[in-house]
Amino acid sequence: MTEESIFLDYVGDTPRMRILQYLIEGRDFDYTLTDLLHASVSWGTLNTLVPKLLELGMVIKTRKIGRATLYKINQENVAVKQLIDLYNSLLLKHLSELEEKTKKIEMTL
């Protein structure tokens, strides 16, 4: 069972957007391809999409540990900056709505 994602509701629930959401949520960390499987995409899809995201400059290689290459979202990329702004705005909007609902429930008690 997967959690509902407000971000994916707006931008579309595609493997590419799932990978980008996962990287945006953990934007201060770097990940191996195996770690990126937690974005709910298949190994084959990862091996297709990561090179494309690297080519677009949305993802960067950060380092190698043994045979594993680690990747991170490129926060300097213009498109990524806009996606991060959208992600943050949607999250704040959702939290505000939850806070309002909580206040209304508390007022009725």
Parts with pLDDT < 50 across at least 5 consecutive residues: none
Shape: elongated
CATH superfamily: Winged helix-like DNA-binding domain superfamily/Winged helix DNA-binding domain
Note the gap between the termini: 33 Å
Helix content: 55-70%
Please name the CATH topology: Arc Repressor Mutant, subunit A
**Strand composition percent:** 5-15%
Cα Rg: 17 Å
Number of strands: 2
Question: What is the topology, as strand order, of the major beta sheet?
Answer: 1-2
Mean pLDDT over the full residue set = 93
CATH architecture: Orthogonal Bundle
The SSE order reads: HHHHEEH
By DSSP (H or I, 4+ residues per run), the number of helices equals 5
The helix-and-strand class reads mainly alpha
Whole-number tally of structural domains: 1
**Sheet having the most strands:** 2 strands, antiparallel
CATH class: Mainly Alpha
Description:
The chain is mainly alpha-helical. It has a single domain, classed as Winged helix-like DNA-binding domain superfamily/Winged helix DNA-binding domain (Arc Repressor Mutant, subunit A, Orthogonal Bundle). It has helices spanning 6-11, 15-25, 33-36, 43-56, 78-108, and strands at residues 59-65, 68-73. Strands 1-2 form a two-stranded antiparallel sheet. The longest helix has 31 residues, at 78-108.
Features:
2 strands, two-stranded antiparallel sheet, elongated, 109 residues, Arc Repressor Mutant, subunit A, mainly alpha, 5 helices, single chain
Summary, kept brief:
The protein has 109 residues and is mostly helical. The chain is built from five helices and two strands; from the N terminus they run H-H-H-H-E-E-H.
